[in-house]
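Morning!

This is the sequence you dropped in the shared folder:
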Amino acid sequence: MAYYRISEVLSQVKQNTEPFGNINVIFAGDFCQLPPVGDTILYSNLKKNWTATDKGQKTVLGKLLWLSVNIVVILTQPMRQSGPENDTFEDRAVRHVDIAQPDWNNPECTVPLIVPGNVAKNSLNAQFAVAFASTIGKPLHWYHAQDK
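The structure's back. Tokens below.
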């Protein structure tokens, strides 16, 4: 249904009734992740009774929109994320990455932080976990898994 909603909004914005407002769209993501919450998996089989409801009709139309995509490029090797040596100062300057100083104790602070690698992500997650435990007055326990 997400593809239907994307197409519907683009069609309204572009004032064009063609799929996706008749503009080129690039879809990016990891199709091996968990299924979307409250939505249908893109590669699921369509059920006969789906057209009986508004949501079902939009799901079917969204699936048909997805199937109308006629150019697919599959990237199989991560480049920038393959290590710190692939995230240079010049890369960060091009992306205008700033050092964020979030207010860890403000529960209203819900801005997503985008960082260049796992080291920064892990550090920020640890800082947030400590601040959250302190805010709610609960002890923090760390459990580490090891990949085999």
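Headline: The chain has four helices and no strands.

More detail when I'm at my desk.
O.
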